[in-house]
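Here is the promised in-class demo. Please do not try to memorize the tokens; focus on the logic of going from shape to residues.
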């Protein structure tokens, strides 16, 4: 059995990006550990959602614990940084935010967990953080360095298959399927170079179809950020399966597979 550590920027990122992988690994008997850089304090929340004097970061920690239980995660750790917000916003400059963290110091915090867990596999994000969010970019930088410090043997970059997503959104446009309140219209990802990576850069496709109910339940645990009318929860089951039935990764140091993707990670076989 192996130990998988998934490193994420904010609560709910684990559900969306690697929830299927985590659930599948846990179901197969592997140890799964979730490390989150921030408590997601800069997220948006509807008026009246939080209790009196309840901070959003406090609620999101509780939600993360609930999500982790759904996914079969055995340990949750927070690195202790604050949420930097979206790129080019004032929160990018706040003391203690993850975007401004010293990479070496943050990597040492993560490496200590990797060493303690004797991690076999670490997941981070691609070098643009999937879509250009500063904390996601920092996850890549910090995670890669932490793996070097801890000599973690396998590192995979969670990302999105831009080629596949473009086709999916085109299919949805033609079918007229509702995408929920988050999207007035499906985006043209072919015109958004910061969105995921083209298929030729990918090395691994993980089939998580069997674990989609778990992945969706994990998303639902993050109610402060993912409402029932959101893109993630409002779409019909068959559309959700099309969108989230596979998770995509780039194995660091491995050549792209030109469309012939490895189905699973060697460290979790």
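The designed amino acids, position by position:
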């Amino acid at each position: 059995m192996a130990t998988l550590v998934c490193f994420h920027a904010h609560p709910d990122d684990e559900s969306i990006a690697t929830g299927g992988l985590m659930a599948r690994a846990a179901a197969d008997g592997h140890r799964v550990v979730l490390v989150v850089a921030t408590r997601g304090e800069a997220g948006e929340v509807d008026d009246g959602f939080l209790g009196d004097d309840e901070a959003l970061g406090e609620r999101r920690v509780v939600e993360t614990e609930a999500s982790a239980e759904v996914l079969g995660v055995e340990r949750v750790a927070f690195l202790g940084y604050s949420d930097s917000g979206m790129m080019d916003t004032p929160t990018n400059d706040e003391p203690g935010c993850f975007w401004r963290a010293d990479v070496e110091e943050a990597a040492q915090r993560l490496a200590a967990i990797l060493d303690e867990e004797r991690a076999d596999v670490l997941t981070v994000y691609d070098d643009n953080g999937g879509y250009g969010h500063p904390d996601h970019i920092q996850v890549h930088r910090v995670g890669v360095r932490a793996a070097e410090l801890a000599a973690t043997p396998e590192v995979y970059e969670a990302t999105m298959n831009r080629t596949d997503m473009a086709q999916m959104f085109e299919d949805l446009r033609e079918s007229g399927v509702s995408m929920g309140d988050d999207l007035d219209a499906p985006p043209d990802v072919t015109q958004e170079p910061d969105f995921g990576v083209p298929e030729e850069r990918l090395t691994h496709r993980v089939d998580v179809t069997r674990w989609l109910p778990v992945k969706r339940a994990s998303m639902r645990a993050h109610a402060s950020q993912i409402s029932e009318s959101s893109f993630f929860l409002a779409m019909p089951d068959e559309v959700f399966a099309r969108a989230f039935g596979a998770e995509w990764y780039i194995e660091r140091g491995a050549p792209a597979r030109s469309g012939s993707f490895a189905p699973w990670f060697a460290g979790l076989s």
